[in-house]
Amino acid sequence: MVPRPSNKYPIGSKPLGLVNLGNTCFMNSALQCLIHVAPLTNFFLDGFARVHTSDDHHDSYNPFDTCGEMTGAYADLIWNMQRSDRIDSDYIHSFKPIRMKETIGYFVPSFATSDQQDAQEFITFLLDVIHDELKEKNKPDQNTIIQQLFFGTLISKVTCLKCNHVKSTTNRIVFLPISLNHQQRLFVVNFLTKDGIQDRTSVNVAANGRVENLVQQFLELNDLSHLFNQIIVIEAKSEEQLQFETPLRRLFEDEVTLIEQDHYISRFQSNRFDEELDNLRLEECLQGFVSLEKLEDIWVCQQNTCQQATLVSKQLQFKSLPHVVIIQLKRFSYTNSFRRKLDTFVDYPIDGLDLSELLLSSSSSKKENAIYDLIAVSNHIGSIHGGHYTAYARQDPSMDEWYEFDDSYVSTIYSKQKIVSKYAYLLFYIKRTK
């Protein structure tokens, strides 16, 4: 007889790892984070407990198979990860999520390949499909467990600064995307050809960007791409010979010179710089998400007095926050033909994140508890072209016992400093209960 899993959280004294089935570390990291969302896990365990206490079903019966393929596959994963004969075994340390891999690959062919995928896209699709499948089984006026835990309501308010007309739209949101490019830095670029012709251009780029972003912006403003087929040299003091990957924070001056190569240009002297200049705090990033933003010529006001593209202000605020807030640190940057990963360190709190400032002042949720605690982190280590996903998670937000999940390998984290790193990609916060 298969031992019944407990429907009480935490999940056990020895969490299981997930076997990598071929570049599925993105899936394993995402699943470990979701497994440690206690209310979600308990929802499925309670479903198993109800049917297994009856004589009508065998202990291996999965009651969620009747909901849909994806819900059944995820429930099967939870059941196998929670079985007491596994978590109490001295020989079983991991589980192969074969059914999950096959099922999501059936829905999304790209997930069926051995190519590396995005953990955020995986979670988005998984939650959406489980929500849709459960909704079909529920009563029309009954919210699904996905709605109850992960759905928030975001209000976008656009105000015409000419006639003060306001247009508000309401959207459902699961992820809170946070840009890591808040601050801009103005550079004056001097372009000097070997014929002695000089041209000056002002270029705005992200302060924590790299030289490649500066050059790309310069080329967009000047039709000079034919001159850059062989070499680009930027006259600036740096730690090493200046390359495209050099962070802009290592440039002393806000003025640089691009020189068309004619003869050998010597290396510059090496200097040391403070690595913390481009660090960010999560609270500051969140303020940037809801701060008032002025935009020009991107919105056509429909009022009779305007009827034209005009200067507007835009502000985002939450009408309601979800019980589980998933924050996406947007580390993957796509600008024209350039793709790169931002390694900016973001300092985020493990306990006591106050999100009340994200709520509308008139929202009833403003008066409610908006304090959140971190329960899991999905990490991405490496470059945009190749990397590895791991996860950090704790069994209970009231406990300090954290684990690191690296596919099949699970280890205890003894220093909380490790949890906050430059590799963090997805942060899972759960609302603190009174």
From TrEMBL:
PROSITE patterns to which the protein is assigned, alphabetical: USP_1, USP_2, USP_3
One protein family per Pfam: UCH
Keywords recorded for this protein, A-Z: Hydrolase, Protease, Thiol protease, Ubl conjugation pathway
UniProt entry tagged with the keyword Hydrolase: yes
GO biological process: protein deubiquitination; proteolysis
Single annotated GO MF: cysteine-type deubiquitinase activity
Transmembrane segments: none
Residue span, USP domain: 16-432
EC number(s) per entry: 3.4.19.12
Domain of life: Eukaryota
Catalytic activity, as annotated: Thiol-dependent hydrolysis of ester, thioester, amide, peptide and isopeptide bonds formed by the C-terminal Gly of ubiquitin (a 76-residue protein attached to proteins as an intracellular targeting signal)
Enzyme class: hydrolase
Similarity comment: Belongs to the peptidase C19 family.
Protein name (Swiss-Prot/TrEMBL): Ubiquitin carboxyl-terminal hydrolase
Upper lineage: Eukaryota, Metazoa, Spiralia, Gnathifera, Rotifera
